[in-house]
Amino acid sequence: MGHDSEAFIGIDTSKLRNAVAIAEGGRGGEVRYLGEIDTSDAATRKLVAKLAGQYRRLTFCYEAGPTGYGLYRLIGSLGHDCMVVAPALIPKELGDRVKTNRRDAENLARLLRAGELTPVWVPDERHEAMRDLSRAREAAMDDLKRKRQQISSLLLRLGMHYPGKTTWGKAHRNWLRSQKIAHREQRIVFEESLGAESQAQERANRLEAAIRVAVPEWSLAEAVMALQALRGIDLIAAVTVLAEIGDVSRFASPRELMGYLGLVPSERSTGDSAKRGSITKAGNRRVRRILIEASWSYRHPPRIGREKQAKVDAAPKAVAEIAWKAQTRLSARYRALSKKGKRPTIAVTAVARELCGFIWAIDRAVTSARTRAGASQETR
Hints:
There is one protein chain. This protein has helices spanning 41-52, 70-77, 101-114, 125-157, 170-177, 184-214, 221-227, 235-245, 254-260, 285-295, 306-314, 317-339, 344-379; strands at residues 6-12, 17-24, 31-38, 57-63, 81-85, 265-270, 273-279. By secondary structure, it is α/β, with parallel strands linked by helices. The protein has three domains: 6-114, Ribonuclease H-like superfamily/Ribonuclease H (Nucleotidyltransferase, domain 5); 125-217, no CATH class; 221-372, no CATH class. The chain has a five-stranded mixed β-sheet with strand order 3-2-1-4-5. A two-stranded antiparallel sheet has the order 6-7. Helix 8 packs antiparallel against helix 10 and helix 9 crosses helix 13 (344-379). 26% of the residues are buried.
């Protein structure tokens, strides 16, 4: 061990204690367990300072998880490299059924030294805050759906059926208030459920309003406005996509983005046989759901409604052209797949995969426009 050597440190994080292991540089470098430390900043700073006095270069890593990115930012502020690792992509030995904090830390250090770990994209604090706000709104909507389902299930058991077509509008709510339930106990349940649904709706509305207020101050505000030129993408969908994906420009091609979102077919090839199955469903499920939902709108012929026209007019000309190209191509794609006998769900999934490419192209157009605007200001 010398001050001019290199070391790779694996950290198995938890709520109160972090297990730490170190792998010295070189193929035959020693891998040893350093023990556990508190998760406090002071304990981490002390560990980093101690190791920095022994090695010329330090590289840290830990798995992405519920502990967040605070450790990553702290180590970076101390002047050292740190990698947040994708847990699902960590190589594992077949048949290894022993899992301990020590083994996990040592394995991370060993794989980090070998260059076999895959990092995740780490957002800055502002971007992480927008992601938390977007996810809070999604959780509120899920809660609202559950409460509405509880009310519908209760009424179904009582033999009460709404005669209209559209539920949870003004007419439906008036109908709900007019229902007479014979038994006091069930009437209490019904009234409490209606109150809970109303509170859940108000919570969702507050979070959506907070998103609308926060977007103009966000670094990706231009991209959010541009994505809304696409059919099936509104403000909430655009914010969700960008908050979850982050920096779209880090993907060198649309195919990389498709693979990241798990919208590419799975494949099992051996010898002369090649079998392709359903999509891999790897990556971010929230973005995948948004794109699938948006892709259902491409079942219809290309058109721009009055409300969408305002979004298209607000977007740069290059973005508007990409959005219209997406409409014509994806609508034709859905019809072509339907004529071949493909199920609607399969056709929509294929459309969602190609929609990723148009999102990538729009982000590239926004980035180029921003670069040109910055260059023109510098020349003035």
